[in-house]
Amino acid sequence: MNDDATRAGPALWLLTIAITTLLLIAATKALWLVVPFLVAIILYYILLPMVHRLIAWGMRRQVAAAVVAGGATLLAIGILVPLLPWVASQSVASGQTVFRYLEGGRALIDRMLLAIESQFEFLARIGLHDQMSKKAAEFGDEFLQKQLIQIVNGAVAWLPSLLLAPFIAFFALRDGRVFLKRLIDGVPNAFFERTIYMFDRVDATARNYFQGLLTLTAVDSLFLTIGLWIIGVPNALLLGVLAAVFEWVPVVGTVVGCVMVVLVAAAEFPSDPWIVYAVIGVFIVNRMLDNFLFIPMTIGRSIRMHPLPTVLMVFIGGAVAGITGLVLALPLAGVVSAIVGAIAGIVRDPRLRARNAYARALQVRRVTADFSE
Amino acid sequence: MLGFLRTQGEHPRIAQIRLLTLFATLSSRELRIVDGLLHDRRYLKDEVVFDQGEQGQALYVVLSGRILICRQGDPVTGRIAEIPAGALFGELALLDGAPRVAQARAAEDSMLAALSRADFTRLVETHGAIASKIALQLARDLGRKLVAVNAAMEKGPAAVNTGIEKGPL
């Protein structure tokens, strides 16, 4: 029973993938709720150990949850309020800054294409540089005019809904345990142990994944910041943290983070291409360390699924739900897999179903004992 | 320091679980934490609690009623022990997740409190002192059962079942 999810065959893989895909499609339709819910889950797992500590010191759960959630909110306000003037000044200059970095990137591509054309004459004859420069200019203009504005507008639209996150986290900390108990109370005796196992798997999957993800982000932030600082890229800390957060998006996150830092390096050091190569080198080394060391040590074991459906799920998630799908595919598939595995275990176990039927028959016999034939 | 945030008086439920052997050494504050982890389950007479060979996920404490431990599907001749109110059973699942070694079924209408292995493991991580006290009580309980079995074995195989039955379960 313990490994229903890992022993699942192709039929259960397909069922898990199908249910996860449907949930991801639904998630794209309700991002205003999914995003704060996701942030709330992360907050919940960060704050839960502190709630446990206060309970151990003698505080009631309700009070401990209020103290921890209130303290975290005050801390966030204490950090964000002093930063507001700086953020405001940065946002005024951000349009110009983004334009300057895109120009830096365009100049870098220009130089690279000219260098390639000087090596391969046939590329010069077909006008590779001119065509690619034109495409890059079109992409840059479209990105600035449409996509960047869309991204900024989307972020502004989500901000109010993000205020839901601390509330959801607070109520999860305060009443999550009671809610779970009530839920399990409604399960028939025959399925009780399977159910507690299933909820434990769901909790362990989510907890290990999100705590692992935060640890991975911290490790990546540190490695990238130190690497970029050694190379001499300005704002190494900010860029390192941002690139590490981009890593939350499987497959494309690393590329996006790397391109972002390459653009900055190309704009800041237009006459020194080796810095750009060094930046790419730092990201390649970080990716390799992630794959072989950091990910196995952090989130690697949280998703108890076969590698094949796991990889399939990432690609399907990206195809049906874009960035949301890429970010949510793995944790959601892990949770769905645990639930599907447990329910399949019950459905496939005739003894458990017979025990449940017998218990219901006993109940019926009890309540109808005084009925005459 | 945090005294003003603590509850006053003892809730009847806390008084009830204080009487259970497994939690006898816990303070009121610790009992409140443990109570948050217990799942109350009601079983009718003859209802199966768990089957022999099933993967165990929880330990049970009998709040009221009696539980029969027997060989699978043989409650009459395969009778192994009878667990009275206040005692516990299914503890091996808590310790190592081993398959159940016998079947448990309600000898009469019973109310059980279940502590899951996952919750106990978390208790070890978050409230080590409480987990240690429970583990110590578990060890004492297992020791008493072992002494009872040894005493019964010395009287001969026929006395084993009777010995466990009368042992301090």
Key features of this structure:
heterodimer; A: 373 residues; mainly alpha; 86% helix; elongated; B: alpha+beta; Jelly Rolls; four-stranded antiparallel beta sheet; 6 helices; 38% helix; globular; disordered C terminus
Structure overview:
Helix content of chain A is 86%, strand content 0%. Chain A is mainly alpha-helical. Chain A has one domain. The longest helix of chain A is centred in the N-terminal third of the chain and has 59 residues. Chain A starts with 9 loop residues before the first helix and ends in a 6-residue tail after the last helix. Chain B has a four-stranded antiparallel beta sheet with strand order 1-8-3-6. The chains are: A mainly alpha (373), B alpha+beta (169). The interface between A and B is medium-sized, with 33 and 33 residues.
Please describe the biggest sheet of chain A, giving its number of strands, its sense, and whether it closes into a barrel. Answer: none
Share of residues in strands of chain A:
under 5%
CATH superfamily (homologous) name of chain B: Jelly Rolls
Distance between the termini of chain A: 43 Å
- What do the pLDDT scores of chain A average to? 83
**What class, by secondary structure content of chain B?**
alpha+beta
Largest beta sheet: strand ordering of chain B: 1-8-3-6
- Tally of distinct domains of chain A: 1
**What is the percent of helical residues of chain A?**
over 70%
Overall strand count of chain B: 8
**CATH fold-type name of chain B:** Jelly Rolls
* Envelope shape of chain B: globular
Secondary-structure topology with pairs:
The complex is a heterodimer of chains A (373) and B (169).
Chain A: H1 10-29, H2 31-56, H3 61-119, H4 121-125, H5 128-162, H6 164-185, H7 192-231, H8 236-246, H9 252-268, H10 273-297, H11 307-347, H12 350-367
Helix pairs in contact in A: 1-11, 2-3, 2-6, 2-7, 3-5, 3-6, 3-9, 7-8, 7-10, 7-11, 8-9, 9-10
Chain B: H1 12-18, H2 28-35, E1 39-43, E2 48-50, E3 58-64, E4 67-71, E5 74-83, E6 88-89, H3 91-96, E7 103-106, E8 110-116, H4 117-126, H5 128-154, H6 160-166
Helix pairs in contact in B: 1-2, 4-5, 5-6
